[in-house]
Amino acid sequence: MGLLLHSGAALAQSAVHPLTLLLESDADWAQVDVHGLQLRILKRELSVAGDAAVPALGLAVRKLAGDPTPVSLRATCEAMATGDAVEFVLTRADVGKTRLRIWAGSKVIVDARQEGPLPGRPQNRQTIAVDLAKVLAAPPLPRRDYGKRALAFLYGWYGTPQGPAGSWQHWDPAVRNHAGRDTPQLGWYDAADPAIVAQQVAWAREAGLDGFVLSWWPGDAHEAQVLEALLKVVRGTDFTVSVYVEDAKDAGHLRTQLLELAQKYGSRDNWLRVDGKPVLFVYGRTVNDLSLPAMQSVMRDMPAFVVVDTVHPVMVPTFDGSHTYVGAAFPERYHQQFEGLAAKARLYDKLLCATVLPGYDDSHVRTPALVVRRDDGRFFERAWATASLADWVIVSTWNEWHEGSEIEPSLEYGRAWLDRTREFVRRWRGAP
Length: 432
Known about the structure:
about 425 residues; alpha/beta; TIM Barrel
């Protein structure tokens, strides 16, 4: 019967194994379809006798009708079980000879030969069932270790008349419902005030966080001040900094922003990096309407390590990593979506970030409102359960007071959410 993986969580954590397919045929067309495995084709090698030009499409070869030219297609792949029975389906034209061989690592697990029409089988269809255990017998491929990082989204758009902003920005105590339901323990502060930044960093470190990801809007001079203050405060520590690109007009504008940010800030002390590349996060609104070719154009020769906000596994191979900003507000749906992202990230060896949300309440700024009760930390705990599949975790958020998702100390909660975050980070890192 073979070994089957039935849960999404098992799929998301399953190993990736080497697989090689060799299709040899002098039929004018032949192809292989694969069920029960997700395949990542690393390399295709097409060999053709003589000077004939033969296109290879995935795991298929096509020639002109009746062309008997011998062709071989070798595909070097990485494979991951989906939980369904493993089957290789060979179809081909009626004429000529065809042979399919498949190796799991160095061991042959399929060797099928066909010649001429197969009675009663349209397109000479042959389904070859393979015990999954034979695929898994090949030693699994090592997965890249991105380290375990716990970050938080930081908002720098708050300003006061007494602070660097010189005016009220994003809140004003004289205006009803100007902020959110909770009140910062630091008061209505200016986010570029070095003393405020220093206190926020100190608290974040107490909470077990490794860095901040600062919300970034193109051309916002105040947020640029916040970033400079943040980089100055963390210098000499191991606390890291990145930014969250929130808006772009089109693919060209997004690419320009990423290149400029990488050039201007990427070499600064304490910038978050992977393999020497500065890490930049991208919010979903900047990519949701882009075609796949447009996304690929953004990433072409990109000197930054780009982590995109998405729930769509199809986007995972294009970028360096993925996350979902507020998906955790809907735990069951988010967990299901996250398993799909995790499986794709594992197959393509990409960074996977989970977001964890303490709660959410935008009733002071939006109608209709979305309210997710904090439930004395129980909602937060459910969010961290999904994070067990992730390389990194991002707390959403440190201080988005308008949407009531902050963990920064408040008059209402004191340090309770710092303490809860520290405990969940500790568990996530595997501490007893």
